[in-house]
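RESIDUES AND SHAPES:
===
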Amino acid sequence: MNDYRERVGEVCKFIDAHLDHKLSLDQLAELSHFSKYHFSRIFASVTGDTPFAYITKQRLARAAGCLLETDKSVLEIALLCGFESASNFNAAFKKHFGQTPTGMREQTRQDRNISLSDRNPGEAGQTPTLYDQTVKHSFLRRVWQMQATIEELPLLEVAYVRHVGSYLETYRAWAQLGKWAAQHRLFPPEQSFIGISLDDPAVTEEEECRYDACVTVPNTLSRADAPQEIRFQTLPGGLYAKFYFYDTPDKLALLYQSIFGNWLPDSAYDPDDRYCLEFSMNDPAQDPQGKAKVDLYIPIRTRT
């Protein structure tokens, strides 16, 4: 865990030193030596915030200090702290602190004893990290105690339907794919149904999140007559850590948190730059308790 904390810590130091610069996810991921695809989850598991949420909080903390300790204008402070405009700064500031920058400055001048300690996210030790908070979660404790299986997967040829939008509405893609798969008699156990979340909803707008509902296909399947919504791709093989999940679908996000926040840091592996694969082993709608049975494959590489 220390290695992951140190790498994320270096990113936090870089952010803190460059709050007045434009910071990109690609830049921060490269600095951490994690892939962009996995970086946000790892960062959030250590700090409790997504990279962009952390950046915003740190900028607001610096801005609050400038408001109280200097006579700079609101616009000057906004630009100094990395905001593109005074209006964006005002909106973010009011949302976080519950008052406008000008309002806070005036109130503070009236009472210099005002304390921001309960609201200042920039002070170390004020807020427990997600890692610390979730230790108390019984579901995650069970996850942490289980052992992953390390497996090598071959290349997988799949047909898929892409969904763009909320991950809560992926059933539409599955319905389209399921109808086509049934017509071609593509059923388990000979074939596997695999879900792939291509974006992290913590850093991607909900309406822009991409998800592929996939089914493996035999080499003998003709692709010529496939309808427009059915596409084909090859999923890369390689080394994966396999985790067994059986719970309500909303708990799957907690499994990801546990893996990236606890299992991976304590393992001998780093996440590899491939997509996580969710092998669907049942239909939650047919389960008596509405639970999903998923074999979750996390791409890994040996840590050097």
About this structure: Confidence is low (pLDDT under 50) at residues 113-136. The first helix runs from residue 2 to 17.
